[in-house]
C-alpha cells in the first residue's frame, strides 16, 4: 500500500479496535471455531490455510478455490478453474 512510500504511518481508532478483535478472536476463539474461506487461487491463501488448520475446528472452502480441492479429491469439476500444480 501507500504506507511504504511515507516515513511515518498510523491507523485510526476504528482500525485499531478491529485489529484487536481479530487478534483476540484468532488467539482465543470461541469454540467451535469455523472458518469460511473463498477466492480464486489456493496459492494466494495457502499460508493462511496452513495457519488456520492449527486453530480452526472446521474450514469451509468456497469460490473458485474449491475447485482445486474438489479435483484433488477426484470429483469432476468440468471446465472450472483449477490450479493443477496444487492438486
Structural overview:
- The protein is built from three helices and two strands.
- The protein has a two-stranded parallel ribbon.
- It has 87 residues and is mainly alpha-helical.
- The protein has one domain (2-86): Phosphoglycerate kinase, N-terminal domain (Rossmann fold), CATH 3.40.50.1260.
The fold-level CATH name is Rossmann fold
Strand order of the largest sheet: 1-2
Under CATH, the homologous superfamily reads: Phosphoglycerate kinase, N-terminal domain
* Structural Rg: 17 Å
Portion in strands: 5-15%
Secondary structure layout plus pairing:
Blueprint: H1 13-27, E1 34-37, H2 42-53, E2 58-61, H3 65-72
Parallel strand pairs: 1-2
Keywords:
87 residues; mainly alpha; Rossmann fold; two-stranded parallel sheet
How would you briefly describe this protein structure?
With 87 residues, the protein is mainly alpha-helical. It has 3 helices and 2 strands. Strands 1-2 form a two-stranded parallel sheet.
